Amino acid sequence: MARAHQHCLDTLLFQTAAAALQALALDPRSLGGQLGMVGVLHTWPRDLASHPHVHSLVPSGALAPEGLHWLSPRSAAWLVPVRALSTLFRGTCKAALTPAGLCDLVSPQVWHKDWVTHCQPAGTGTAVLPSFAPYLSRLALTTNRLEMLEDGPVTFRVKKHAGAGWKRLTRPAEACIHRFLQHVLPRGCITVRYSGVLSPSRRQVLPQISTLLAACLSNAPAPERIPLRNRQQTRPAPAQERCCRTCGGPLVFFVRLAPHPREPP
């Protein structure tokens, strides 16, 4: 179904992914503002099978509804609830396929399975954009991954699913050509889309967002530094001896267990 209606499905992927993210970000329990997103369409996994999906690059924060200040996430480990995003993305996809007349072509079991959306912090923009940029024009199979072409069979390298390293796949020439051509997008299909506060219609807001971000960074409290002389003179106070509530014996300290950072709900 995805190959037969590739142009429509690829467009719906962009729209539903952006809609699900924005719906959760506008919730006051999450961020309470509007996100900005850069979406990139990919149609292949590591073994070059057909697997259309969208990678979304999202700034860590949102613009408040009144547009006067920048809203930072509650935790540096996550931006929106991941499990809620998976459920919302599934429902948004089903709602988008119904008016397009494609919902009946999908097996009913698909809507009863748990969908998985992968979200993780990617770092600062200066570190993410250089690694994100090559995916905009990268081919499904590059020349340096082709190793052998003799009497029909083609051998090429693919990345392993678990762990580091590569493995070799040998397929007939027709099968290899089929794997490659199924990732050639139809004419007019857009592979990069900007949405939210990063959409082309909101370009006049970008200077204001840059000003708000600069103000957030300047108002961030700097870590207090203790002079070396005072650091040497300051000694920790002796710990008060603690006793067991049951037997009354002294408690022996082994190690302090630090709390785990809050995970996405």
Any descriptors?
single chain; 265 residues; alpha+beta; 2 domains; three-stranded antiparallel beta sheet; 6 helices; 28% helix
Number of domains: 2
Indicate the radius of gyration in whole angstroms: 26 Å
Category by helix and strand content: alpha+beta
Side-by-side strand order of the widest sheet: 2-1-8
Write the layout of secondary structure elements.
Blueprint: H1 6-26, E1 36-42, E2 53-57, E3 62-63, E4 70-71, H2 82-97, H3 125-132, E5 146-149, E6 154-159, E7 166-171, H4 173-181, E8 192-196, H5 206-219, H6 228-233
Antiparallel strand pairs: 1-2, 1-8, 3-4, 5-6, 6-7
If you had to describe this structure to a student in words, what would you say it looks like?
The structure is a single chain. With 265 residues, this protein is α+β, with helices and mostly antiparallel strands. The chain folds into two domains: 6-133 and 186-218, no CATH class; 141-182, no CATH class. The protein contains six helices and eight strands, in the order H-E-E-E-E-H-H-E-E-E-H-E-H-H. The chain has a three-stranded antiparallel sheet with strand order 2-1-8, covered by helices on one side. It has a three-stranded antiparallel sheet with strand order 5-6-7. The chain has a two-stranded antiparallel ribbon with strand order 3-4. Strand 5 (146-149) and strand 6 (154-159) form a beta hairpin. Residues 222-226 have low confidence and may be disordered.
